Amino acid sequence: MTNKLCLDGQWQLIYFPQGEWQVHHPDELSNFDLPSIHASVPGNVELDLVSSGLLPEPFLGTNINELRPYELYEWWYSLEFIAPPQMEGKRTELVFQGVDCCATYWLNGEELGSSDNMFIEVRLETTNSLLCQGVNKLFVRLRSPIIEAMVRSTDAICYGPITNGEQLFVRKAAHSFGWDIMPRAVSAGIWRSVSLVSCEDHALTDLYFYTLSVDKNLSAAQIGLFYRVATNPAYFYHGLEIRVTGKSGASEFQMSRPVLFNTGSLTITLTNPRLWWPHGYGDAPLYEVTTELLHQGRVLASRTEQIGVRLVELIRTETTTVEAGGEFLFKVNHTPIMCKGSNWVPMDAFHSRDSSRYEKALQLFCDTGCNIVRCWGGNVYEDHAFFDFCDSHGLMVWQDFAMACAVYPQTPEFSESMQLEARSVVKKLRNHASLVLWCGDNECDEAYGWYGLPDPCVNQITRSLLPQVIQQYDPHRAYLPSSPYLSPEVIRSGNMNLAPERHLWGPRDYYKSSFYKTSMDHFISEIGYHGCPNLSSIQKFIEPEHLWPFDNQNEQWIAHATEVSGSQGHNATRIQLMANQIKELFGAIPESIEDFILASQISQAEAKKFFIETARLKKWRKTGIIWWNMIDGWPQFSDSVVDYYYGKKLAFHYIQRSQVPVCIMIDEPENWHVRVAAGNDSRQSAFGSYRIWDADSKETLLAGSFEVEANGTSELGKIPISHAKQQLLLIEWIIQGRTYGNHYLLGFPAFSLETYKSWLPQIAAISNDFRADEIGR
């Protein structure tokens, strides 16, 4: 077994403006009178400054701006530790799971190496002579990423947003330089765990499990294993073998195979396998698989993994048209999947806190009936705990590589860095059953057009380098060059709307405008609408004297919009955009903060409900919607349906109803009628009874029993309407004794906010899954 010493905990931290003192070695630190504080590992330097009383709470008011001077600092971490006796005489490695980001490492005064990528693990070998039996002293120096970016800025082809062009030249989460959903917080720190590990003489250094096939009747499957071993080469022809044992419930398998070389592969056939399914389409069982390396019957090394047996296909075309159609469809175990989910954005501006938020945030996806989560490219790559949750809860993961909204360098140096990053990330995450797609980036294809460049196909990172890495290390998983991907056919057409998968932002006007209703896409991977956090949450990050009004002179609202260039920046207008969306629906902007919050939450909730139900009602022309977004990574005014403090907005509850596997929905008016349909996003047929009535008159408009086939849609009838009326139609249905609820807002705006307030308790009462009097509080 590998021996491991965890080095997490309290370290010392020395810091100063980079270049103000010329320090090139830890021994030189004592030559200067430099500030020193305690630091947490994992941690971020800003949080250590806050803990030491040197910075105010950064999420309150405009305090986030006080971090700017520290972007040009360097940081020296140090730790004294004693290695355990059992490591004596063994080869050891220092393992840093995440360092942000331009670092140099010393142990006992000797430089071990350097790194410059916050996303990937750093392993530094320590010699027996270097590691002391007594006290060892470890130093880590972090240089300013801004100064580093200045040194690296090169190509004329490189373009990025004017407020955060630095993101192009250092491998650091793009959002940290400032985004429309995150503040500028160019942090530094040892943000994931650190350990000293002794390396064993025998090891299973590489295990890659994959599903080769699942037969059509789901009664058999084949899984494959690629392995790499480290051991005495003399063992290879003298009784060395690999043994694989797996179990999930009553399903078990075992296979042994001679090992004649340090790499190899094998195929295992499973009869009546326990298959992994996305949430809503079945259970998500995992096999516990133990792989052992044996020599003449003696176990030399052993590893245990949790794997899922499932066949995932992405069926897509390069373009789509109304006439010829197209496709962007996920199939799992030969079953088409109607994807419903949300984008995963940074969990915190300070990433050392990410993992503490995983479980609670991901549970929100399960609670709202999501079956897919898209990990957005402006973020970090999440750790195993994130994927473990998704594995066990049937949440498919769409994983962007960490590039967003820019034209990245095409230099040999950048390509080499991206190849190292992609190789590390792919090998780390590829055994997770939940991972269904690698995507080259977020909106970088579109960025070529924004900056006047004709063709994103010249991007060799996403067109050549990344697919080659995936072909080498994860060939059984789909790859998409960008989101949205603008294929050569789409570029030649000159019509970017012909991409089968799109981000539907557009004018962000009335949510039933023609932009939303006439899009030709098959799969929507971003779409959103603004909604205020609850008042109790706003009071945690806006100081009392700045709570109201919201206008463009309110610097605290602007700071949490988010806008990194102040009130003149384009994102600062998103506060006004939210107000305009309220005015569009209700005809006026409320004068009190309480009514403003409620009106914005209603506007957002109706919009996102409409987006989801429109996709479901057009199944299978539409095959998926990943709305923006579930939860904030810092307190702000945004498109999220849950705020940073886990306060649920009204949209959360409406989405929860619209995403149940079997949902009764009302389509938009046509020929003086509205169509009522039951959508079933599951593998079982469903039947029950339903009733639809007018909220004001209580008159029943349609009722009866219904049946809907597995993974299908059934029309239940039509209700006559008048375009001159504004009505709230309430929907209730019962399946196997459980009551479900939904509603439909009929008519054209402007609606009366007071009338909607009177409707809200009736909407809540249908299935009693939320309380109307708590909305916006």
CATH topology of the largest domain: TIM Barrel
Mean pLDDT: 95
Give the second-level CATH assignment, the architecture of the largest domain: Alpha-Beta Barrel
Number of helices: 15
CATH homology superfamily of the largest domain: Glycosidases
Q: What low-confidence regions span 5 or more consecutive residues with pLDDT below 50?
A: none
CATH level-1 class of the largest domain? Alpha Beta
Number of strands: 37
Structural class: alpha+beta
Strand order across the largest sheet: 27-26-25-24-23-30-29-28
Multimerization state: single chain
Helical residue percent?
A: 10-25%
- Strand content bin: 25-35%
State the shape.
Answer: globular
| Count of distinct structural domains | 4
Radius of gyration: 28 Å
Distance from N terminus to C terminus (CA atoms, Å) equals: 53 Å
Biggest sheet descriptor = 8 strands, parallel
Keywords: Glycosidase, Hydrolase, Signal
Catalytic activity: Hydrolysis of terminal, non-reducing beta-D-mannose residues in beta-D-mannosides
EC number: 3.2.1.25
GO molecular function: beta-mannosidase activity
